[in-house]
Amino acid sequence: MKVTCCVVAAFFLAVSARGADEVIALKAARIFDGKSNALVQNGVVIVEGNKIIDAGSNLPIPSSARVIDLGDATLCPGFMDAHTHLTSDYSGDFNERRLKEVDLNVSEQAIIATAHARATVEAGFTTVRDLGSRFVGSREFVDVALRNSINKGVIVGPRMLVATKGIGATGGHFDATSGFRDFLFGREPDYTDGIADGPDEIRKAVRFEVKNGADVIKAAVSGGVLSLADEVDTPQLTPAEIAALVDESHRLRKKVAVHCHGDQAAREAIEAGVDSIEHGSFVKPETLTVMKKKGTFLTPTLMATEWIMGKLDNYPPALQAKAKAAAAARSDMFRNAVKMGVRISFGTDAAVYPHGQNAKEFKLMVDLGMNPIDALKSATANDAELLGIGQKVGTLEKGKLADLIGVPGDPTVDITATERVSFVMKEGKVIRQGPPAVQRTENTALPHLTAPAD
Ligand SMILES: [Zn+2]
To answer: How many angstroms is it from 27 CA to the middle of ligand 1?
Structure first.
């Protein structure tokens, strides 16, 4: 009897708790649910508290609901960007930025990052996978602090899955002391900076990052564009090191994203079982075939190359040469990946270009042969799967968290509509309805690509 009473009491408590949540009915001319191959007309999404309780066409509106009618717009799941660096800004002059990085204290850079977070969520990106946050000579975990502050509601920003320091080899793409005088910072970087050599040290670096709050592990398996002491496509970890990285990360239930431009490094990383290849500029069709077979995601980050190529004067000659080589290769690689049906995740390398312009990636993807609806899926259901949060977000379905955005018109007709998001809701809370709070000022125009990136 006592048990029954408890059950009844719990039931009424649950009902009254539910009753306290506001019901919002969102209406728009169309809806993209994140998984279907076509938009549905007369979209309605009913939100209660932080969850979606129904989504579809012409649904009846509960009498208690507050109605938000977006008119001639398309309701979409909140976009995701699987490759950002919210704690940094590399978009200006390269040398000026390097100086600023050692000039400003890390606390000040952390405060600046709060504006990047706000610009990102206001652009419609309600989730990001933030792939690396490091400040040369410092061991601060600014990305962890940013994620936690957003989760606590202290600041406004996207849901973040963070990688802390990217893991890489001595002198490799992630060695922030490369290009500076030796021992300028008093010591060689070590596993506490994400710099590790040999399988055991790599395992230690993974464990250290997870201990300090990493949700995902990022590593550089090949050279990169914006680093001074390496070639863009050479392998930087051995197969044994990559195997240790993947094994340790997966044991700790963390996914592995690898920065990789070169083909050999990509092949070795895919064979070792990484979850995504970031960039992939020089990846050959044979390697894409292996990727497809293994189900490895490709995060193409077309925006990064686009921005660098449009602002080449910002970079030293050695980096200009690397950027040109990567840009010349990446368009064919992307076209091949689309044709071959490689799983494509949406990621932009935000920080290389000014934060908040993430949606410009959509047009670049479509211009290189991707179907608009597939591009939209890459930023919703695909990213949710890659990030391992598909149970909670990525589609507009009953029971999912209410991350919703409104884009004007029909984005499958004009994909650039994604750049003009007018409404953002995250977990049932309206973050933006109308103009953004963060006014974009400098560096906002995406320069026209002049080099043969296409
Ligand atoms: Zn990056």
So the answer is: 36
